[in-house]
Amino acid sequence: MVGAACAYYAARSGLHVTVIDRGPVAGGTTGAGEGNLLVSDKEPGPELDLALLSTRLWRTLSGALPPRIEYEAKGGLVVASGEAGMAALRDFAERQERAGVKTEEVTGDRLHDLEPHLAQGLAGGFHYPQDAQVQPALAAAHLLRAAGEQASGRARLRLRLGEKVTGVLKGANGEVRGVRTVSGDLHAPYVVNAAGTWGAEVARLADVHLPVLPRRGFVLVTEPLPRVVRRKVYAADYVADVASGSAALQTSAVVEGTPAGPVLIGASRERVGFDRTLSVEVLRRLAAQATRLFPMLADVRAIRTYAGFRPYLPDHLPAIGPDPRVPGLLHACGHEGAGIGLAPATGLIVAGILTGEELPLDIDPFRPDRFGGAR
Amino acid sequence: MPDSPSDERADDAYGAPYDLAVIGAGCAGLTGAVTASELGLSVALLDTSGQVGGQFYRTPAPALGAVRPEALHHDWSAFADLRRRLEASAVVHLAGHHVWTVARGSEGDTEWVVHAVTGVDGCGERPVRVRARTVLLATGASERQLPFPGWTLPGVVGAGGAQAMLKSGLVLPGRRVVVAGSGPLLLAVASSLAAAGARVPAVVEASGYLGYARRPGALAANPHKLAEALVHGAALLRHGVRLRTRSAVTRVHGTARVEAVTVSRVDRDWRPVQGTGRRIACDALAVGHGLVPQTELATSLGCATRRTPDGTYALELDGLQETSVPGLWAAGETGGIGGAQLARTEGAIAGTAAAARVLGQPALTRSRRVRELRRRRDRMRAFADTMAAAHVPGPGWVQWLNDATDVCRCEEVTAGAIREAVADYGARDARTVKLLTRAGMGWCQGRMCGAAVACLAAGPGAASVPPSPERRPLAVPVPLGVLGALDPDEADGPVS
């Protein structure tokens, strides 16, 4: 998704772009995600600024891309079971408001106006009208296609799928000259590393250190249902889990309906490498938390579950921008669980750097060399 | 044999770990269970059905009062013998258990937790958990379907499905039934249908039978298979059934249900030959293109697979039927399609091997009997591979499809939509096609359309073998209430 967005904005700026992927479009983490475009879960700070910019860009993109990408400005609802949780949410929302997030407090008695099937007895919650959703694989595929179509004049977009990058070509002064793939060399003055969870590997090909690690998540998918969950609904603990750096398993159910009918239930987080083995404990927790929020889901069947690997960087911020260690190398990876949401802003920034335009926000917090290491 | 546990006894059945849990009570699982039990292991035998016998020895529900269910069966005495041994044994038969996953226990590789849901049709479902030191996967196979225009019309049934309807419900799918597809099952299905009183105007086989002649050794070593073919052949002749090889049903006609089919000649690659279409009137079509091993429980645990000569994936097994994951054995169709007799042979080997491991008596696997079983198994496997190679779908079958043909029935995704995802949107494999079109995302989770989607995703001219086996971490749908009610400490096995 991030690579597709970089290609889209770069091609729109008139650049020649070649997108190379060792697999198909959306074959990595994009295809395993829920398509969350969230501001509600983000603390005020650089990531929230990026998310707010992305939210605006997604709205524009939703007009330019076909409705099949399933963009829905459905809003998010964060609920608290008790008064203590509600107080914490209120404090969090107040700080977000100051950073530009729209929030609405929802009292316990009004929750069912927003979500009729929510459990009884919840203390209340906050509604975030800016939260939205897309179907990530379709969004990436259509964004790439649109990038190809809008490339006009000298600009061109090429897609090379199923082609693995095996090396980064460098000139006499260590600057980037292109990439080597399994089918030959490709020359270019700029290389953008948008390899997501595998971004550390691509960085290593250029002899730089970028500690992207996989953070596994499972999603449970139910049988198709009529629309019983209208928004993105999650419990207050989700925010704390997202911000945590722990390797241990954390789960906090995020429940949402989809236009196609199934309800999706995320989100677990654990650092266990690239292990896809089903964890019964993760499924148990997700199912228990989801049915606590929506008791009517207890009789609904899960028909599928899948694991994905979020690209995790130790400070939870992505790496976006030029790598001072290798001229011509840019990074656009490490967005953890927010890559779909943050993709347009990332793509716009990368295109802006490549064309020397003024950037929409300060990218210093996303410096790719902030973790030190080789070179 | 203790019966399925009633509610009061249930906790006994799910308490202490068994030496061996066998999943699937067909030919392979049944043989494996009784063999291991006779060697002294405590054994749990889990199956979704209420009765043992699996697909091959499928019997009518007792309520139907069938007087001679064996009349429809081949080799009934072997099954009767297995049932006798089961009744005399201490095997705990857990009927009506839908296994949704097998997980490693908390004690390393030595213990397994089999998670199942009991109860049927959404009533009274509850989660159960069977612990075992070793596991035998004998989950059998499902039928491979390749779509063609009209295949979703009422009256089109799976060939294996037609056989199952006949064996379990004593009903025919129609009065005039064309049998089509590819594979040895077609002859058996046609002769059962004819024997039960249906008219079978044609058996339509897409392959030739020349493939068998290319491996005369395997045929000569398996005279029983020739005898079987002769029995079916004779039955078909007696009923006036015509076998058309190198032909395929390329279209089904009818509005509310099947009224006729068009049968076309196909070339070696299964491409229809222009102008050869002939219409045959019928009120049902039984169609199947071979069987696909059901391996999802094993692949979720990381068991290695092998590509079979007919373009599916089966589990990679060693000489004693053990998978690449120690402590997990497999027998029967999960290791490659080969029929009931092979399944029984493999079940006996696997049951013995598991007993040898649990009892710490490796000599058990070196007995003269096991050596003889292994020789028989190798001989039958060689024949099965010959047969599989003869019936591998030719890449030209995709030309039966027009863009409007539904490929994924659950989500109503057409061949045209899949071709577009590949040509215009960068899909290169079944997974991306699924993400971009929803093909395979529905209730059956691609069990019906998976083979077809993989072929279309691979693009024109590609081999018909999908690049990797499908993964389905949930082997059957599980209610969220059931998942959420698992015992937290024991979801992944006992905590000591």
From TrEMBL, chain B:
<dbReference type="InterPro" id="IPR007419">
    <property type="entry name" value="BFD-like_2Fe2S-bd_dom"/>
</dbReference>
<feature type="domain" description="FAD/NAD(P)-binding">
    <location>
        <begin position="18"/>
        <end position="347"/>
    </location>
</feature>
<dbReference type="Pfam" id="PF04324">
    <property type="entry name" value="Fer2_BFD"/>
</dbReference>
<dbReference type="InterPro" id="IPR017224">
    <property type="entry name" value="Opine_Oxase_asu/HCN_bsu"/>
</dbReference>
<dbReference type="GO" id="GO:0016491">
    <property type="term" value="F:oxidoreductase activity"/>
</dbReference>
<dbReference type="InterPro" id="IPR041854">
    <property type="entry name" value="BFD-like_2Fe2S-bd_dom_sf"/>
</dbReference>
<keyword id="KW-0560">Oxidoreductase</keyword>
<dbReference type="InterPro" id="IPR023753">
    <property type="entry name" value="FAD/NAD-binding_dom"/>
</dbReference>
<dbReference type="InterPro" id="IPR051691">
    <property type="entry name" value="Metab_Enz_Cyan_OpOx_G3PDH"/>
</dbReference>
<dbReference type="Pfam" id="PF07992">
    <property type="entry name" value="Pyr_redox_2"/>
</dbReference>
<dbReference type="InterPro" id="IPR036188">
    <property type="entry name" value="FAD/NAD-bd_sf"/>
</dbReference>
<protein>
    <submittedName>
        <fullName>FAD/NAD(P)-binding oxidoreductase</fullName>
    </submittedName>
</protein>
<feature type="domain" description="BFD-like [2Fe-2S]-binding">
    <location>
        <begin position="407"/>
        <end position="454"/>
    </location>
</feature>
